[in-house]
UniProtKB/TrEMBL annotation:
Homology family: Belongs to the MGMT family.
Protein name in UniProt: Methylated-DNA--protein-cysteine methyltransferase
Subcellular location: Cytoplasm
Misc: This enzyme catalyzes only one turnover and therefore is not strictly catalytic. According to one definition, an enzyme is a biocatalyst that acts repeatedly and over many reaction cycles.
Catalytic residues in the record: 176 (nucleophile)
Domain Methylated-DNA-[protein]-cysteine S-methyltransferase DNA binding: 126-204
EC number: 2.1.1.63
Matches recorded under SUPFAM superfamilies: Methylated DNA-protein cysteine methyltransferase domain (SSF53155), Methylated DNA-protein cysteine methyltransferase, C-terminal domain (SSF46767)
UniProt GO MF annotations: methylated-DNA-[protein]-cysteine S-methyltransferase activity
The organism of origin for this protein: Streptomyces liangshanensis
GO cellular component: cytoplasm
Catalytic reaction equation(s): a 6-O-methyl-2'-deoxyguanosine in DNA + L-cysteinyl-[protein] = S-methyl-L-cysteinyl-[protein] + a 2'-deoxyguanosine in DNA; a 4-O-methyl-thymidine in DNA + L-cysteinyl-[protein] = a thymidine in DNA + S-methyl-L-cysteinyl-[protein]
Length: 206
């Protein structure tokens, strides 16, 4: 047996003309709040416009679980989250308010480190070891893939470090953009070469 919407939600549905974006926003917020309160929201998400493009932010009750660039196809990302975490996914920006605020501060050059609860379930094993180390690379600094491999306890696993960075579920927050090739060139990046250049330039300029 499913729970019926409360009277206020029903009233919003009834009063909702197709062109009333404000009413739609209010309805969406109310449904998100009800799902959160009932404990039936697996993943909340929102998008955020940044100098590096439109980012998808997604969070579980445990914390931020995914950051995705537009080039990764946000629809595909949400579909994958539904498969790996749970199907109850809703555009619920309130859960991402703090993450969005810190992202804005970072891109404005006012934040050098993120202070957010993170849900690490999308990374396991050696990849998780690599990502855990990335937060130790200082703002405005870089390390080579080889240096990260050594720091992660497997000096020969340079390719595996590259794979860990390429599959990082939390780019920007977990700074895989600070990992570069041994010759100093930027190397590849999940958000594309332009996004990596932007992030490195932002940090070195500050």
């Amino acid at each position: 047996m499913t729970n019926a919407p409360d009277p206020e939600t029903e009233r919003l549905f009834e009063a909702l003309p197709s062109y009333d974006n404000n009413a739609l926003t209010r309805l969406e917020a109310r449904l998100a709040a009800q799902a959160e309160e009932a404990g039936i929201l697996d993943v909340a998400y929102r998008t955020l416009d940044t100098p590096a493009g439109n980012l998808l932010l997604a969070a579980t009750e445990e914390g931020l679980v995914k950051v995705a660039y537009a080039v990764q196809d946000h629809t595909a990302v949400l579909r994958k989250l539904a498969e790996t975490i749970g199907p109850r996914i809703l555009h619920a920006p309130a859960r991402l308010d703090e993450a969005s605020r810190q992202m804005d501060e970072y891109f404005a050059g006012r934040r050098t480190r993120f202070d957010l609860a993170l849900d690490w379930r999308l990374s396991k094993g050696f990849r998780r070891e690599v990502l855990s180390h990335l937060g130790e690379i200082g703002y405005g600094h870089t390390e080579s893939y080889a240096e990260v491999a050594v720091a992660s306890g497997s000096p020969r696993a340079v390719r595996a470090v590259g794979t860990a960075c390429a599959t990082n579920p939390l780019p920007v927050v977990v700074p895989c953009h600070r990992v570069v090739r041994s010759d100093g060139s930027a190397g590849q990046y999940v958000g594309g070469a332009d996004a990596k250049h932007l992030l490195l330039t932002l940090e070195t300029a500050a």
